[in-house]
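Recall that a protein's primary structure is simply its ordered list of amino acids. Everything else, from secondary elements to tertiary packing, is in principle encoded there. The following example makes that idea concrete.
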Amino acid sequence: MVHHVWGEVPPLGQATTPVSTRPAVQPPTTPERPVPASATRPKALQGLAHVIVALAVTVTVLEVFTALFSNVEPGTREAFLLGGDLVEDLAWYEEVQLLTYPLLLVAYLPACLWLYRARANSFLIDPRAIHERARAWVWLGWILPLVHLWYPYQVVRDVQNGSVRRGTYVEVTVWWGAWLTWLFATRTVAGLLNTRDRDPMMAEALSDTAASVTALNWISAAAAVLACVQWCRIVLGVTASQRLAFSPPR
């Protein structure tokens, strides 16, 4: 057998296939975009949860304080007909309300930030988590007309469901029902106190309403207590569940 200097000579009539010494050309690949560490790191909720609970309890105490000191004095109907203001007959009410509304505004910020972070964390727990409303509604749902009556409920419901997985919305539903009751009761009282119509028919209605303002304030206070208890349970429950979900296994 004859050998070529470059190797073995193939048999006569058999084609030769040149062997390339160049490396095989790989198809171009698209480099993967690195995922930011902040996108995969759970967001802290513990500190915000404590602030939310403290503010909720403070607002609730003020509501109870308002109910305790909102006794309408006798002669309200007559004073109203003579041009008096119903609010003058409510001890401490106006002063307490001046504290309540700014506190609600202050409580809005940490509550929405907590919901925003908890919503983001729920996707880390389960990427298939379903949230009916976009993340912008975490902030806007509380302040825009009409939608503020049910959008926040949906946001909180989906955050809890994505974190706790109870399969039931009783806790959130009770909280939201109590919140709406408080909202409507306080607005009704505020509307009555700002009444400037001296119509005798209005005064006749206010002869009952003046005495009912105290009852409305007690309804508002009871609703505030129930809403506060349920809201704190939701916030602390979701915070604890997410902390447990992100804790390293032992």
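Confidence is low (pLDDT under 50) at residues 30-37. The first helix runs from residue 37 to 40.
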